[in-house]
Amino acid sequence: MRVTWEPVPDAEGYFIRFGVNKEELNTHWQVIDGNEALIHCLTSGVRYYVRVDAYNENGVTRGTEIRTV
Fold first, then answer.
1. What is the pTM of this model?
2. Structurally, how many domains does the chain consist of?
3. In Å, how far from its chain's centre is CA 53?
4. Using H for helix, E for strand and C for coil, what is the string for 1-68?
5. Tens-level pLDDT at each residue, the chain (69 residues)
6. Residue 39: which CATH number?
7. Where would you tag: which of 12, 26, 40, 65 has the fewest CB atoms within 10 A of its CB?
């Protein structure tokens, strides 16, 4: 799955959170110095919910959830 997003001003990094239940995005991928990621650890044929959260020294800003096909 390729995930891309608009950079957030002053973000030090991002957490891509994903899972099969939108209430439980228990798996995450951390990205520093970029605004895209290619995630290979998924099961084929399964629909995933994905959210990208930005963070810096002040805390985490929650992103908008999307559902993959």
1. 0.88
2. 1
3. 6
4. CEEECCCCCCCCEEEEEEECECCECCEEEEECCCCEEECCCCCCCCCCEEEEEEEECCEEECCCEEEC
5. 999 999 999 999 999 999 999 899 999 999 999 999 999 999 999 999 999 999 999 999 999 888 775
6. 2.60.40.10
7. 40
